[in-house]
Amino acid sequence: MPGLLEGRRGLIMGLANERSIAWGIAQAARREGAELGFTYAGEMLEKRVRPLAAQLGSDVVLSCDVRSDEEIERCFEALGERWGSLDFLVHAIAYANKEELTGEFYNTTREGFRVALDVSVYSLVATTRSAVPLMREGGSIVSLTYLGAERTIPHYNVMGVAKAGLEAAVRYLAADLGPSGIRVNAISAGPIRTLAASGIGDFRKIFDWYDRNSPLRRNTTIEEVGNAAVPLLSDWTRQITGEVLHVDGGYHITGVPPVVEEE
Ligand code: NAD
Fold first, then answer.
1. Cα 207 to Cα 192: distance, rounded to the nearest angstrom
2. Cβ distance 20 to 14 under 8 Å?
């Protein structure tokens, strides 16, 4: 049986280490036969990303700090020269200054707001724009979001606003690109211990709370997010676009807010 992504080429943006959600998705996509390329932001991360890419048989490793339009252009130009076409894009990138991810939302600074929305939302718009000319046969774009877009989650603050913007951007991009056969969706993952998550205030408490209270009574793993991403990247979901798929053990249906109790 050929894999679901046999013969497909995909770019994975947002791999930092083997705990990254991007790593769970990359492993699953590779297992299903995809050929993968990777991007990194900064030399420090290049040292981590290259060996991981090599583990999945890839030497397509490109610099792409999404704060720079020129970097994004150069990255996709290089990808075009190497591959000529692209079938899918995984956008697993988010950033907010640590001081914005604790305490009250109303203390968000103008600069903190700008940075969070630039890196976490605008980057999807800009990278999609660069990917589209390579997706001549259609394609699939998947980004990563979190329940904090829909509900208030303690300390998530400006990232919640960014994720709400990201989910709206997914719908607008899906509407734009549907006629070109390019689908755009997001996965709303439950809390997972990653580098990005370690910057969120009281993350451990929220993580433990999900483990005990989500309908499936345990936290989500990067492997589970990867397995859910594969169908979205493949032809199996050819009529699905503009959607947010919750991969969070059913937590989003409970209606119970995560309360961070005082110790
Ligand atoms: P991670 O730290 O492993 O990945 C975040 C990535 O963003 C890193 O690779 C980092 O290099 C990249 N990044 C940050 N600034 C960048 C820039 N300027 N240019 C290019 N790349 C940049 O953490 P993760 O949890 O795997 O995060 C991946 C995605 O999943 C993020 O969008 C995150 O918000 C989302 N998400 C995470 C969780 C969770 O609990 N970990 C839950 C739901 C959604």
1. 7
2. yes
